[in-house]
Amino acid sequence: MPKMKLKVMMAKHQHPRTKQQGYLARIVTNGTAYYEDIARQAGKNTTLNEMEMQLGIALFMGEAAKMLRQGYIVDMGPIGKLYPCCNSRWVENPDDIELDDIRPSLYYRPSEDLAGAIRSAALQWKSTPKDKKNE
Predict the structure, then answer these.
(1) pLDDT tens figures, 100-113
(2) 3-state secondary structure 76-124
(3) What pTM, to 2 d.p., does this model score?
(4) 14 close to 20: Cβ distance less than 8 angstroms
(5) Checking DSSP bridges between strand 32-33 and strand 103-110, what pairing results, if any?
């Protein structure tokens, strides 16, 4: 599989602890690859019977991975979106960061339905707070 190549830019960012202004690396995307378009591409040459639907999902994921490798945000419809992103150390001067300091990553943002399901979930401790130190 081809190695992912993404464009990176420096973005102004305030250091969370010191509040000093500086810079972080940020991915520059190529737009969005939409769920319907990926599904249409992935579903070519199938009749979408039960077994082909399973194959269709695999084809869909393969097409989504291809779009990510090309630097696109991938809109997966009712599932949410996948964003190419990166992590880097904080620097005050943008000339102080090298490409070796930047690690590519993937960010997932769930659809509103999925996010709402999580937000509406009730939370409880696995054990009572006084027992947490014994875990």
Answers:
(1) 999 999 999 999 98
(2) CHHHEEEEEEEECCCECCHHHCCHHHCEEEEEEEECHHHHHHHHCCCCC
(3) 0.63
(4) yes
(5) unpaired
